[in-house]
Structure formats: C-alpha cells, structure tokens
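Q: Got a minute? One more chain.
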Amino acid sequence: MSESTGAERSESAAQIAPLPRISIQAFCETPAVVAVVDEAAADRRVDKAHVKVQLGGVPAAIEAFRSAPTPNLIVLETLGDRRRLVAQLESLAEFCDAGTKVVVIGHENDIALYRDLTARGVSDYIVAPLDVLSLISRLSDIYNSAGAEILGRIVAVVGAKGGVGASSVAHNVAWSIARNLQLQTVIADLDLAFGTAGLDFNQDPPQGIAEAVFAPDRVDSNLVDRLLSKCSDSLSILAAPATIERLYDLSETAYDAVIDVLRSSSPCTILDVPHQWTAWTRRVLVGADEVVIVACPDLANLRNAKTLFDGLRQARQNDRPPKIVLNCVGVPRRPEIAAAEFAKAIEVESTAVIPFEPKLFGAASNNGQMIAEVEPGAKVVEVFDGLGRELMGRSGTRKTKSGLLQPLLKRFSRKLAGRDVRRGF
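A: Always. Here it is, folded:
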C-alpha cells in the first residue's frame, strides 16, 4: 500500500504545473499550516513565486493592507465560523487591489461554505489539514487551469525619436513597479546592438535575450529563467548583448516566443523597444497591453509622436490609446513646444511630464543606478511612481474594490442605495 501511495504521489507531483512569477502572502493561525506553507515555498514548483508567511489570520491581513499594496495572491487561514469569516472578508475587500486573488484555508468541511465563498469571489476554499503537494496543486490550478486568465501585463516603451530617454523611462518605471507595487517585474531589452539595460543596472550577464531570439524553438520558461539577470527580489532583466558582431535582421515574429513566455510567467514585463520601424517593432507595439511613447518637446518629436500615436491607435482599436510621456522638459535657452500645445496637436493629454535634470539623471546613469536610488526624495521619482501605477491599472485611489468579492460588494452597494432612497437623499 505504501509503495502504491508513493507512486501515486510522484505521478501527482509530476502533473502539477509550476506557479508563475507572482507574489504570495499567507496569513496563518496555526503552526501546522505555517509549516505547510513554508515547505511549499521551498518546493521547486514555487521557485518563481515570492512567498511571505506570517501569523494572525484574516485580521492581520486587513491590518497589513491598510497601507500597503496587495500581492497577486493572498492565502488566509481561518478558525472562525461562517458569519465571522464573511464579515472579515468584507473588511479585507475594502483594501484589495483589482486582480488580487484570495484562497481561504478553513477547518470546516462544509460544501455550503465553499459555495458561499466562491460565489463571493474567493478563488478557492481548502480544508485543513492539508499536505504540501495538495496546497501547491490547488494554487497552481488557479493560474494554470484551462479557464484561468492570462497573468502578465506587457508594457512597450518606445521613443518618438532617438536619444529622447525612452530606455531611462522604461527602466525607472519598471523599478518603481517592482518596488512600490511589489510585483515581480522583468525588463526585456529589445535593442540587441545598443541596449543599455545592463549598463543602467550595473549588470554584465554572460547571456541574455539574444540567446532566446536566435533559438525560438528552444524558448520555454526554463530557458528564459536561466537568461534572466536578477537585480532585486522583484526585478529582473533580459539584457541585450550590445555588440555589432552580427547583423540583427530579425523576422516579424522574432520576439513572439519570448514575449509569450514572459506574459505567462511574470505579472509585469516592460519591453524597452528601440527607435526603429520594422515588421517586428510594429508587431511588438501592436501586441502589447500598454504602449508608452516618450518624446521631447520639439517639432520632430511632435511629428513622430503623432505619427506613432495615430498609427497604433488605428491598429489597436479595441485597446486604450498609447500614453505620451514628455521628457527633458525645461532645457535652458532651448525653444520648446509647450506641453499643452503638444497635447493639443496629438489630441491626447500627456500621461507624465519629466523635467530636465541632467545632474541627477547623469549621476544615475554613470553609477548604474535608478533615480530613486540616487535621490529618493526627488520629485521626478513621484512622476515615475505615478506612471507605474497608471500602467498597472492602479492610478487614482490606491485601493479599488473590483475583483475580490465583487458580487458581495455589488449587493452592499444596492443596499446602501436603497437606504438613501428611503431616507429621501
């Protein structure tokens, strides 16, 4: 019996798909569940995920997320009854970002409770006691099942003209997303001949994105993982070789395989797209979830930005229009087009305006650091932070109430509306 059980466990383990590159926070109430989550975090199938575990259950989660962004997945252990659990989840929903998923570990084997929670937007309800593989399997199913939504968001950043600082914007925004939103983020440098991602992060990886581009039939999550160069716990880069030893006459679909893997394995990917117009750059820009056009406030940039903006808006009719970022604004004694006039010509407001600060940006570039590392209190850091939130759908109010427990929140909205009507408001 033990041999059969062991064989079945091995077969079951082999069928569990690895978790993608997500952030997970678990709030437990018993040492047994803490031990299971800790052991699961050390498993190879959870190697890409960033897992944090703490005691306190749902109340600790509510307190933690009052002033911090929520991760991709929250795991909650509860010892309370149904009424108390639902009340606690209602409170937690007020602080959850859109897209956050919740798994509840309970101690009641109650199918009615399971149905009640899933109807309210909880991704899964798991009955304790549980073993490591069972937990990993249930978490994996959330992201790898046939009906699971695509996890990653692809953001393409391109300059309206060469030398406008598009790479600097891309790298600093990626740093901000990884640091402030606690999302696992990858920067993919698509400028194989002259890319600067390695320089900007003071990295010199022996391998990079070219290895994947020139061997598309070998591209999978394992290869991409091996090619990533880690900059922090939540930020990695796919660096370009930055050499001209070979010609990079790439096909239209050259980056398809790499981007597909990144989309399925990383919550956020920033594509640093070089200023050129080829079949593959057009395909990358049209296929991205968000496009950012970086421009300086002069006539050539205005013409190019409008050309790009109009062309991409036409090709992406069912998507949001590209975002415009004005960079190097306020150069002394340089005639400039005012931001308002620039926006009027393109018929869209600029998403961000970055002032000309050569000393700060020069120091960061020469030191292989980001702006926030050189001068954390600089106002331009707030610009990058705001742009990062905008690109990841977290602008405006930091906490949104869509996603988690959406059916429950709608019901409460209707109740409040009914009360207002009865009170004569």
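A: The chain is about 45% helix and 15% strand.
Q: Perfect, thanks.
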